[in-house]
Design goal:
Shape: globular
Structural class: mainly alpha
Strand order of the largest sheet: 1-4
Largest sheet: 2 strands, antiparallel
Number of helices: 10
Radius of gyration: 21 Å
Number of strands: 8
Distance between the termini: 29 Å
Helix content: 40-55%
Number of domains: 2
């Protein structure tokens, strides 16, 4: 996600340890949950800030600092390949162009929303499928009978895998990546949301999904590997939640099918 957003990779796939920014993001997520609580009692917001752990507050600042520094570096150069900001900056100098403060806040949001949610859903879905071998076999058979290799996978072909789509839908129902929907405020004058009129000022929530990315990742895994839980007796789903799930690593054995 860092490469797509800022044109600079964090090298998470080549390094077995978390990048410091990723650790900062996890702590920042907990801060979001606590700040939501403080907004329910505005008069106590200063007290909430005072009792928050210093380390958590520093991680929140670190997350924002990482994203703003990378954004400054990205905006100072022209990337070889287009990224998110290639499209955002097309309106630079025009009335609808984003203000610099909006660029910074959106850069931090892209990393927060894009790095964790897909991985969380796929981890939960993989765990649930491994606890139900018959359904895992049915899904693996559908993927392997549809594609001779991962190079043949495309958006149209993946969208035709009905059982894969059903599994992702069920995974989103049982283990949504964001346990609470991202809040949005209805504009003054009201608006129609999901077929219902909602008055202005109302806070609403709605899920934001990335179906194609999850289809592609899951299909690639099932095409190339057989999976098995390292410790089937452990209840991986026993987790705390701070806006997102506070989960342990999902330890899985992989056997190549090639």
């Amino acid at each position: 996600m860092a490469d797509l957003t800022f044109g600079e990779s964090l090298n998470q796939l080549s390094d077995a340890s978390y990048h410091p920014w990723v650790w900062a993001i996890f702590s920042h997520i907990k801060m979001i949950a606590l700040s939501r609580v403080s907004r329910e009692w505005p008069g106590l917001s200063h007290l909430f800030r005072a009792i928050l752990p210093k380390d958590a507050k520093e991680k929140q600042k670190q997350h924002l600092r990482f994203s703003s520094d990378l954004l400054d570096k990205r905006m100072a150069r022209k990337p070889e390949q287009p990224d998110i900001w290639s499209f955002v900056t097309r309106n630079a100098g025009q009335e609808e162009a984003l203000h610099p403060t909006e660029l910074y806040s959106n850069g931090a949001l892209f990393m927060l929303a894009g790095t964790e949610t897909t991985a969380t859903l796929l981890s939960g879905l993989t765990y649930m499928l491994l606890k139900d071998p018959d359904r895992m076999k049915r899904l693996s058979d559908e993927v392997r009978s549809s594609f001779p290799s991962d190079g043949n996978m495309g958006m149209f072909g993946l969208s035709r895998l009905e059982y894969l789509g059903a599994c992702i839908e069920e995974g989103l129902r049982l283990y949504p990546p964001v346990a609470v929907g991202p809040p949005r405020t209805v504009p003054q004058g009201g608006a129609t949301v999901c077929g219902r009129w909602i008055p202005g000022g109302t806070i609403v929530q709605a899920p934001i999904l990335a179906y194609h990315e999850m289809r592609l990742i899951m299909s690639n895994i099932l095409l190339n590997f057989d999976l098995e839980l390292c410790d089937p007796a452990t209840d991986w789903m026993d987790q705390k939640v701070y806006t997102l799930w506070d989960k342990n690593p999902l330890m899985v054995k992989l056997r190549s099918t090639r």
